[in-house]
């Protein structure tokens, strides 16, 4: 069994965050917990923050030719 799945089966909450993020307080207090997955955004404006997530794949760029972006 995979370690991540085992952790969730034990009832733990998992938070995945960027490495350049600093928590000055308990981040779980700010989460609504009304869904299975909540995600952060690097949105610079409120409208951009609530955009939809979309993807792109450019096979001519090789293995690193894909990415995700926020679509408003």
What descriptors fit this protein?
single chain; 72 residues; alpha+beta; two-stranded antiparallel ribbon; 2 helices; 2 strands
Characterise the protein shown here.
By secondary structure, the protein is α+β, with helices and mostly antiparallel strands. It contains 2 helices and 2 strands. The protein has helices at 3-9, 46-49; strands at residues 52-57, 66-71. The chain has one domain. A two-stranded antiparallel sheet has the order 1-2. The model has no long low-confidence stretch (mean pLDDT 77). Strand 1 (52-57) and strand 2 form a beta hairpin. The protein is 15% helix and 17% strand.
> What is the residue-mean pLDDT, rounded to a whole number?
77
Strand order of the largest sheet: 1-2
What string gives the helices and strands in order? HHEE
Low-confidence stretches: none
Radius of gyration: 16 Å
The secondary structure category is alpha+beta
* Overall tally of domains: 1
The first-to-last residue Cα distance is 39 Å
Q: Helical segment tally?
A: 2
User: What percent of the residues sit in helical stretches (DSSP H or I)?
Assistant: 10-25%
> Which range does the strand content fall in?
15-25%
Total beta strand runs = 2
Shape estimate: extended
Pfam family, one: Nucleotid_trans
Protein name: Nucleotide-diphospho-sugar transferase domain-containing protein
GO molecular function, one term: glycosyltransferase activity
Organism: Cymbomonas tetramitiformis
Topology:
Elements (H helix, E strand, L loop, with lengths): L2 H7 L36 H4 L2 E6 L8 E6 L1
Antiparallel strand pairs: 1-2
């Amino acid at each position: 069994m995979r370690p991540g799945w085992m952790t969730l089966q034990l009832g733990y909450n998992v938070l995945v965050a960027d490495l350049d993020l600093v928590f000055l307080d308990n981040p779980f207090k700010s989460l609504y917990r009304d869904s299975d997955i909540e995600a952060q955004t690097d949105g610079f404006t409120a409208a951009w923050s609530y955009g939809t997530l979309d993807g792109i794949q450019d096979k001519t760029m090789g293995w690193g030719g894909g990415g995700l972006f926020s679509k408003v």
